[in-house]
Amino acid sequence: MPRRPRLAAGALAYHVLNRRVGRLPLFKTSADYAAFEKILTEAHAATGLCIMAYCLMPNHWHVLLWPRRDGELSDVL
Q1: How many structural domains are present in the chain?
Q2: Which residues on neighbouring strands pair with residue 56, listed in sequence order?
Q3: Residue-number span of the structural domain to which 69 is assigned
Q4: Over the Cα atoms of the chain, what is R_g?
Q5: Strand order in the sheet with 60-66
Q6: How far apart are CA 67 and CA 30, in angstroms?
Q7: What pTM did the predictor assign?
Q8: Pairwise pLDDT comparison (35 vs 70), residue with the higher score
Q9: Is residue 44 situated within a structural domain?
């Protein structure tokens, strides 16, 4: 059964993160970091969602998103 869309209000900042299980490395090479940044850039270009900040670490990442309208976050995530 698919997950229902998130009820995310617009004009609020959202902290999104993802961690690798067992503190294992998620990013091993500089190419891994570059690939993530490319995907983030493509997501911004496709949706226009405001990406306030992001931080990439070897075993996890953080992104601060700011949707302008209600439901915009569900269009991306």
Answers
A1: 1
A2: 61
A3: 14-76
A4: 14
A5: 14-19, 60-66, 50-57
A6: 29
A7: 0.83
A8: 35
A9: yes
